[in-house]
Amino acid sequence: MGKRIIQQRRGRGTLTYRVRKKAFKYRIKYPISEGKAKVLKLINSAGHSCPLAKIIIGKEIFYNPASKNLFEGQEIEIKTKNIEKGNILLLKNIPIGTELYNIESRPGDGGKLVRSGGNSAILTKKQKNKVALMMPSKKEIWIDEKCRATIGRIAGEGRLEKPVFKAGKKYYIKKAKSKLWPRTSAVKMNVVDHPFGSGRGKRIAHGQKGKIPKRNAPPGAKVGTLSPRRTGRRKR
């Protein structure tokens, strides 16, 4: 009998491959209140790639990705026009060229875009009721000017520059998000375990089986170099 490969097993959605709820016990969102707020504590969350800031405004407590150089006890402002790192403002009140993160995709959704450690977007243009943002991927998107965002760059920059020296440390990093570690190379597997598996040789391109899957292959069997959308010379 055949055996499900990793992509197929993950797609089934069992607990083995789903992130445990405890990893995301701190829900990132923006508060309803406006005015001055205070950073109570900086928290390390296993499910996030950056430290989280526990912030209080009035009697309301919320969590937001910490900006670079943010410290405990710091005061920040929400929905004002003061452009300081860590403040939360409407996009229409932010000047062009400002670095932003944790940006709402729709007004009031609590922040969905640019939330990983060390990242930031840049506000580049303004039009009627819309603003343009240059994302970390260099793609430009347009968003409603009533959406909120945090000023600055997310803390945790350079976290991927230091190598992980021990396999055990890598294991716990992956385990926090239910990612398999260690991962066996595809060509080292048996033929029933992976499309690249078997004893035909270690170099896929020179083996009897090609690295390009069939165009109508199901999810999980589409591994390696995927087929191009079109072939041949483009007509002018």
Question: Which helices and strands occur, and which strands form pairs?
Answer:
Layout: H1 6-12, E1 35-43, E2 52-57, E3 60-65, E4 75-78, E5 88-90, E6 99-101, E7 121-127, E8 130-134, E9 140-144, E10 148-151, H2 167-175
Features:
236 residues; mainly beta; 7% helix; SH3 type barrels
Protein model, in words:
The protein is mostly beta strands. It has a domain at 21-151: SH3 type barrels (Roll). The protein is 7% helix and 22% strand. It contains 2 helices and 10 strands; from the N terminus they run H-E-E-E-E-E-E-E-E-E-E-H. A 6-stranded antiparallel β-sheet has the order 5-10-6-7-8-9, with no helix packed on it. It has a 4-stranded antiparallel β-sheet with strand order 3-2-1-4, with no helix packed on it. A hairpin with a 2-residue loop joins strand 2 and strand 3. The longest helix has 9 residues, at 167-175. The protein is globular, with a radius of gyration of 23 Å. The N and C termini lie far apart (50 Å).
